[in-house]
Amino acid sequence: MIKKIAVLTSGGDAPGMNAAVRAVIRSALAHGIEPYVVYNGYKGLIDDDVQLVDKKFTQDIINRGGTVIKSARLPEFKEVEYQKKAIETMKKHGIDALVGIGGDGTYKGLLALDKLGFPVIGLPGTIDNDIASTDFTIGFDTALNTICDCVDKIKDTSSSHQRCSVIEVMGRYCGDLAIFSGIAEAAELTITADHQIDENLIFTKLKAMHDKDKSHAIVIVSEHLLDVFDFAKRIEQETGFETRAEVLGRLQRGGTPTAQDRILASRLGAAAIDLLVNDITGRVVGMKKNMVVDYPIKQALNMERDVKKGLLRLIDMLA
Ligand code: ADP
Ligand code: F6P
Questions:
Q1: Ligand 1 within 6 A of 82 CB?
Q2: Confidence class of residue 73 from pLDDT cuts 50, 70 and 90?
Q3: pLDDT confidence of 191, banded at 50, 70, 90?
Q4: pLDDT, tens digit, for every residue of 260-306?
Q5: Which atom of ligand 1 is nearest to the CA of 107?
């Protein structure tokens, strides 16, 4: 029977991580389980940065961006000696199970601990929406809304100056932030790994818009695909459209989580404890078709993300 659990956040922080931490702690308390927090992700397990917490710890954090228990990246955690040290730390505190909140890197760390026999559960916390075992990750909705807010503002000034704006959004190697914001912002062009557009076609379309005196053009691009500053110069040369580039960067990771992210985090956090109470471990929790689901970690890591063909069609049809 599980008596003590620990929770950590790892990898890039995401709005809603605090809501997930809160749900894990409060659900644990509701089941009579003692909750611990680990600061700085897996690093905190190596440094023994572990604290027993109570309900008060979770007050007024549901609406806070970032993660109050901090996050870190620890590449050395791939080494088994580090993983064993992490388990040693948890055993020293009498901790029976760990809930890790993060992306697929974090899931790989949990899988390693699971293979060494330590009970773990993973929750998807990343703005990237790049985890196949859930329809949406905690933080994606907030980041999407932040992007839309930024693009609305850029659109105002683009229209005033009759400019084209090339806007790079995050997502690591996943195009969802670009695809969803491209639709919500009615971007003239949206470029992602799954939706690459021939350069000449881009120039032809933008030139036609410019020649028709269109007040602005918004081009949304996923990170890691091209240099948006060079690309903006080329657009200007090839089309005559005065063009500026913006990299939205880490502002996409901050801010107050949306209600949707808070609710997602609360549902998944509670589900993690439900599994542990039933002695089910080595799994990750997610949301599919608005139902809470869970899968063995390895299966989740091997799942292929669907190409969102329906949304890609909308991008082309509605632009
Ligand atoms: P995310 O969890 O958002 O994908 P990272 O890829 O940076 O973020 O991974 C977070 C942390 O998970 C890493 O800093 C490392 O400590 C741990 N991790 C990543 N990959 C592995 C792995 N193959 N084995 C063990 N731990 C890993
Ligand atoms: O995984 C979240 C994320 O913000 C990605 O979208 C981005 O590629 C990466 O983290 C940036 O990480 P860092 O802030 O460590 O440079």
A1: no
A2: very high
A3: very high
A4: 999 999 999 999 999 999 999 999 999 999 999 999 999 999 999 98
A5: 2
Residue of 40, 78, 128, 137 best suited for mutating to test ligand 1, as the one with most atoms within 8 Å of CB: 78
319 falls in which pLDDT band (50, 70, 90)?
confident
Q: How far, in Å, from the CA of 172 to the mean position of ligand 2?
A: 7
For residue 10 and ligand 1, the question of a CB distance below 6 A is answered with yes
User: Could you tell me the distance, in angstroms and rounded to a whole number, from the CA of residue 12 to the centre of ligand 2?
Assistant: 6
| Residue 108 Cβ contacting ligand 1 at under 6 Å | yes
Whole-number Å distance, alpha carbon 273 to ligand 1 midpoint, is 22
Mean pLDDT of 63-68: 98
Mutation probe of ligand 2 site: the residue of 130, 138, 170 with most atoms within 8 A of C-beta = 170
Residue with tokens 């809470």: 292
Whether the predicted pLDDT of 173 surpasses 90 = yes
Note the pLDDT of residue 307.
Answer: 87
Predicted confidence (pLDDT) at residue 152 exceeds the cutoff of 90: yes
pLDDT in the model for residue 298? 98
Is residue 67 in contact with ligand 1, taking CB distance under 6 Å?
no
User: Residue 199 corresponds to which amino acid?
Assistant: E
Which residues lie closer than 8 Å to 133 by C-beta, 6 or more apart? 124, 284, 286, 293, 295, 299, 300, 303
